[in-house]
């Protein structure tokens, strides 16, 4: 590329500029990520261990250090590796031909900054959507890899049975209000028994079709009366984002993980869901221990441009899976 390659010496392609560009990009957050508290860990391998009525995340060296005061079940600790998610884009000659011909240095700098921001926008969107996709596994009480393979069953680690509510919507005689009120009652009771006294209610993320089937079940119509039920149906038709039915707030979520088999959890419980994040597995990772991701660049072979790679290492977990419940209908 000759002189064209010299453009990569510009300040816009410095790692600090790329990182600033990444952080400055506005993005639409998946709502589910708002449930998670980010927790930075020191290394990629962690131990998930039962501690009282919850799960605790420890470094391997922390297991069994204080046997007289530790409350965790050291013998049954489960090692798990946080998952590495790399993403690559390339800046090629076609991206630079017009910009390199500009004579005005300020205009050239502006154009380069715009080019970098567009690439960083792709990186940020990729990592955010990947994080959201993996977050649903925690709502189901599992730790999975990028292929969806279950690595750890959090219910087993905690020593509890997964709760499932089958609404049996295809059966006219099913008492759906009783099942929903029972779901709320059991969830709130479990939360309070585990010391979560700030519980505010119960939410279930599930697909719109399932919500409409629940709302239109004969037992729900009887529970609300024909007049009130008609108003509830119109209310959900006007705003299908969420609706409270018999004390459970149903939030419309079309993610494959919950569209047909919903995930319920208590609201108001602090740090129920955690997003573990480890430093990038590169030599300079220590400088990026608290970053959302770490960015590097590398010249492409045969003088074909510049490769930009961002990588993030994280893992979503549920600290108290006994508070979770799967909601679905077998018919």
What does this structure look like?
The protein is of the alpha+beta class and 331 residues long. The chain contains eight helices and 16 strands. The protein has two domains: 2-152 and 274-316, putative capsid protein of prophage fold (Super Roll); 159-271 and 322-328, no CATH class. The strands form four sheets. A six-stranded mixed sheet has the order 8-16-12-9-11-10. A hairpin with a 6-residue loop joins β14 and β15 (306-318).
Order of helices and strands: HEEEEEHHEEHEHEHHHEEEEEEE
- Major beta-sheet overview: 6 strands, mixed
**Helix fraction?**
25-40%
Number of domains: 2
Distance N to C terminus? 64 Å
Query: CATH class of the largest domain, please?
Result: Alpha Beta
Mean pLDDT: 87
Predict the CATH topology of the largest domain.
putative capsid protein of prophage fold
Task: Give, in spatial order, the strands making up the sheet with the most strands.
Answer: 8-16-12-9-11-10
The total of beta strands comes to: 16
Low-confidence stretches: none
**Helix-strand category:** alpha+beta
Query: Which range does the strand content fall in?
Result: 25-35%
Individual helix count: 8
Radius of gyration: 25 Å
The oligomeric state of the chains shown is: single chain
Inertia-based shape: globular
Give me the CATH architecture of the largest domain, please.
Super Roll
